[in-house]
Amino acid sequence: MVEFELKYGCNPNQKPARIYMRDGSPLPVTVLNGRPGYINFLDALNSWQLVKELREATGLPAAASFKHVSPAGAAVGLPLSETDRQIYFVAPDAALSPIACAYIRARGADRLCSYGDWAALSEVCDAPTAAYLREEVSDGIIAPGYTEEALAILKRKKKGNYNIVRIDPAYVPAATERKDVFGVSFEQGRNDFLIDESLLENIVTENKALPAAAKTDMIVALITLKYTQSNSVCYVKDGQAIGVGAGQQSRIHCTRLAGQKADTWYLRQHPKVLGLQFVDGIRRPDRDNAIDVYLSDECDDVLRDGEWQRVFKVKPEPISREEKRAWIETQRGVTCGSDAFFPFGDNVERARRSGVQYIAEPGGSIRDDHVIETANRCGMVMCFTGMRLFHH
Fold first, then answer.
1. What is the pLDDT along the chain (392 residues), one digit of tens a residue?
2. Which residue numbers are catalytic?
3. Rounded alpha-carbon distances, angstroms, from residue 232 to 70, 215, 252
4. CA 187 from chain center: how many Å?
5. CA-based angle 128:133:139, to the nearest 5?
6. Virtual CA dihedral for 267, 270, 272, 273, nearest 10 degrees?
7. What is the model's pTM?
8. With the CA atoms of 253, 256, 260 and 265 taken in that order, what torsion angle do they form, in degrees rounded to the nearest 10?
């Protein structure tokens, strides 16, 4: 396939639209089902780069859940705990492959934002992964291949219109990339900077105890940030992004947004949430929405008479602010990554409130001393990577 005609561009009025190779060579992707659009392909190609690099950096299968050219979540294929299975709607006895675990955890970072996502897998898509995707609202998937059983399962999604893309895993893009904006051509070297543990050697805090698991989480955070619209901050725990703050003009707003998402992810494990009794036959998106509202300050919207009966078998007790705060304070071992330096110590303080103990950021602020001092006061381990990771 030398080019692929798209229905339209970012919006229906933007026609004609297509993807093609400037040098006339075949595209590195093959559409196996559906008709992906302009934004679908932006998500597909960005998410593929993320999972490919994450796989190479960690040696573990990797997956991402993308929306509007930024990851809602990314993760490596570590096993699911019993609690993970419960909050991600996985049957206790369901057989899961490592790549299935990776995608389930990637989507589980922010299930509300992952509604209608683009899925990316570093490995061949197998039946367990396809079976989980079958039950989720998703626009499409990109992977280096598909088993026959997985392909058959996915082709039945969306009345046979689910977008399935195969990418050549050996494809290497040109060293220079270009794009046009308002008729002006931009050209730059592709960001092929290698992210690995060598970036984590400059520990600037008094506490220098950086365990192997935290190093992996830093790698997950940094590679996720490399493909997240800037400014961006990412919280990671156990190889899984649990909060991504993307596209904010202020660094502290990124940190707050990512922290709020990490808090919500952790609150989904609160006993009151695990004990929610949903009505029979309720759809997964409706459960996700109900949990999100239940955990918010607008919980009355789902708990008032006439509303809770549509969602729950038994009216739940609300979770007070004090209960939520006390639960979040038990969170530990979280890693925070930033695509550019923290200009003030307030970012460190906000991260600490979501259980962050490890930070990876470029450094280079005129207030680095204050940021380091704040991290020392919090007992954190902080690495200066020396590498900015802006993505636009």
1. 889 999 999 999 999 999 999 999 999 999 999 999 999 999 999 999 999 999 999 999 999 999 999 999 999 999 999 999 999 999 999 999 999 999 999 999 999 999 999 999 999 999 999 999 999 999 999 999 999 999 999 999 999 999 999 999 999 999 999 999 999 999 999 999 999 999 999 999 999 999 999 999 999 999 999 999 999 999 999 999 999 999 999 999 999 999 999 999 999 999 999 999 999 999 999 999 999 999 999 999 999 999 999 999 999 999 999 999 999 999 999 999 999 999 999 999 999 999 999 999 999 999 999 999 999 999 999 999 999 999 99
2. 67-68, 231, 392
3. 10, 19, 10
4. 28
5. 150
6. 50
7. 0.96
8. 110
- Cα 109 to Cα 75: distance, rounded to the nearest angstrom: 9
φ/ψ of 379, rounded to 5, equals: 70, 20
The total number of residues written for the chain in this structure: 392
**DSSP class per residue in 92-136:** TT----HHHHHHHHHHHT-TTTTTTEEEEESS-B-HHHHHHHHTS
